[in-house]
């Protein structure tokens, strides 16, 4: 396992001295500057996000097959982000003598009461995590953002260098919404957020400056595109895994990404003589 290491080029070498195909990775380390190191493997599983693949198809030598390149280009790549806001207690759950509560999913449609922070009236969506099973529950709201709102939030937070400033910005941005939950009181300590965590995949080079594959309007052969990426280029020792190659029932999910890795592992094992698995018919 190599930490702080970037792959710069992936090259299939069919004419190795021993007559066996090899996949060559040219890598650099953060400490080594531009100095290239070379690693060789029999098989390579590429788990880079779809957004990275879209921007880096030229990192493969020889070029990827045209149909695979087309598939990578055709499937959409999103900009979903997440913001977690935690409180001392789950104040929005029902109290004795008062059955008002939220449970699960919450949505604020086209809010017109936050003009200073949300003049575009972006829809707000959140999942409250206090209603999970007792071993997993905690007093946290998970907000999902996408589109222009994600771009606004990630860019705004990135401009703030101090963590306390970032937290305050996010608390203030989402306060018009969590303050409308049952049992909220401005003066109650349980209603004052104590922690915040926001993703910034839109600014992450290795995430491909985005997150999650999706099917855009006008897509013509999305199923074939996914199957093409899922198949990879096994005759060149190149396999692909990730949420963009998952079984259709789990595309765009962490579960699907995990399943796709299991599927590739079984296929590689079978290529080296293991009997076919009954499970792998995805």
UniProtKB/TrEMBL annotation:
Organism expressing this protein natively: Hirsutella minnesotensis 3608
Signal peptide: none
Entry-linked InterPro entries: Amino_oxidase (IPR002937), FAD/NAD-bd_sf (IPR036188), Flavin_monoamine_oxidase (IPR050281)
Domain of life: Eukaryota
Gene3D superfamilies xrefs: 3.90.660.10
Pfam families xref list: Amino_oxidase (PF01593)
GO molecular function, one term: oxidoreductase activity
GO BP annotations, alphabetical order: chromatin remodeling
Residue span(s) of domain Amine oxidase: 2-268
Protein name: Amine oxidase domain-containing protein
Database matches in PANTHER family: CONTAINING AMINE OXIDASE, PUTATIVE (AFU_ORTHOLOGUE AFUA_3G12150)-RELATED, FLAVIN MONOAMINE OXIDASE
